[in-house]
Amino acid sequence: MKDVPIKDEALPVEQTRRRFLQLIALSGSLLAFLLPGATQAAGKTEALLLSCMDYRLTHHTEQYMSGRGLREKYDHIVLAGAALGAITKKYPAWNKTFWEHLDIAIQLHDIHKVMVLDHRDCGAYKVILGEDLAKDPAKERGVHASQLKQLASLIKERYPKLEIELLLMSLDGKVEKIT
Hints:
Strand content: 15-25%
CATH topology: Beta-carbonic Anhydrase, Chain A
Number of domains: 1
Strand order of the largest sheet: 2-1-3-4-5
Number of strands: 5
Helix content: 40-55%
Distance between the termini: 75 Å
Radius of gyration: 22 Å
CATH superfamily: Carbonic anhydrase
């Protein structure tokens, strides 16, 4: 067999990227064909957690979920305002994002629970509702509870079999269940 000389020409970036993406897609399809179930996540995913993007609570959120025995057993979607972000008319794309992620979590990971974790002193609530609720903790709790329950009702309409857990976290990481 005769060696074929390699040309020292680089492919255009777009063509290289396209070939790479085609190879990735082909390998994923081949893997799914050869090993059914191999493209699903390993382990048991129990819930989808919706929480806010506030960096002040990232560590507390992880601690809370781990303390509940859910470390590496939940999918996580982050929207500014959590419950409010999922239902606000001000940012309709966020609504769509939430529902699409929930659908995917059900399809891929067979989740049976949605956990919605709002938090106090939420900047998204200030921006979207135009009011600093943190000045009145009782009112703040009431507004969060209202938004959480509204989202829970919408989830139940679409997915009556899903469990729903509504939570409100303080800035110190303490979590209160909303019923």
